[in-house]
């Protein structure tokens, strides 16, 4: 080959090489083909009756037969107390909530005793939906699945909610005999009016009596621990605060989980 032909061949070779590189790069950017038999990803919204539907499984992945899914119009009560709407989970682990358009806060619960209502207790399982609040659209079914966890285990949710966050209080509930109290709930109020609904609540304590109460903002909170979650305190109920008057309240900074030590509960006397 003469030098002129060689010189003419070099640009063509370069063009071919560049084209191959572009082609290989384009192939690399393509998403991998789905494996045979792989399930199609389920959309969050599908055409159908207005409401929310999905599946509920326990921590082992089994259908949570007999669990309940509750929908609240507000999360002010910490997704506790009577719900605005509810549905039971069937033998296939499925449920459907017939709802109008709007936004709802969902939580799935399975009580060890099988009862449809009552405060969370050790042995129960529950799971607030991490996407709360969920939107319901006209003639559309919103999909929301749940994996239940024991109430003594931490759950992952948005910052500042009932089950996680970076601001709040921790401690232990003990009785007059200095024994840990299980099934106690710590409640936070913005003032010392303990006769109304609490502003924030913690998960019920386990056998070790340990709690963590998350709050959405820094500030002053007045705390009370009790073994019933609704209504006025009743005679004999285990009940306790951090102290009398202003001593019942604590100031917490943003990003601080303040250790309160022990909250002592004793039978309530009217």
TrEMBL record:
The record's region (Disordered) falls at 33-53, 113-136
Q: List where Pro residues composition bias occurs.
A: 33-46
Q: Which InterPro entries match?
A: CarboxyPept-like_regulatory
Task: State what protein this is by name.
Answer: Carboxypeptidase regulatory-like domain-containing protein
């Amino acid at each position: 080959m003469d030098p002129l032909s060689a010189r003419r061949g070099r640009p063509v070779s370069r063009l071919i090489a560049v084209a191959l590189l572009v082609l290989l790069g384009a192939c690399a950017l393509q998403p991998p083909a789905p494996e045979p038999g792989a399930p199609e990803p389920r959309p969050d919204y599908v055409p159908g009756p207005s409401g929310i539907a999905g599946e509920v499984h326990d921590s082992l992945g089994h259908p949570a037969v007999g669990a309940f899914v509750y929908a609240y119009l507000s999360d002010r009560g910490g997704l506790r107390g009577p719900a605005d709407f509810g549905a039971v989970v069937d033998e296939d682990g499925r449920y459907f909530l017939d709802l109008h358009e709007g936004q709802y806060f969902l939580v799935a619960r399975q009580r060890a005793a099988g009862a449809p209502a009552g405060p969370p207790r050790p042995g129960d399982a529950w799971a607030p939906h991490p996407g709360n609040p969920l939107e319901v659209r006209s003639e559309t079914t919103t999909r929301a699945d749940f994996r239940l966890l024991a109430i003594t285990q931490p759950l992952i949710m948005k910052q500042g909610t009932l089950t996680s966050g970076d601001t709040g209080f921790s401690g232990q509930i003990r009785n007059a005999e200095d024994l840990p109290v299980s099934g106690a709930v710590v409640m936070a109020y913005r003032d010392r009016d303990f006769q109304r609904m609490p502003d924030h609540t913690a998960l019920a304590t386990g056998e070790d009596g340990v709690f963590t109460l998350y709050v959405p903002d820094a500030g002053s909170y007045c705390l009370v621990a009790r073994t019933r979650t609704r209504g006025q305190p009743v005679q004999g109920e285990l009940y306790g605060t951090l102290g009398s008057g202003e001593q019942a309240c604590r100031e917490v900074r943003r990003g601080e989980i303040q250790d309160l030590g022990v909250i002592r509960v004793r039978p309530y006397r009217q």
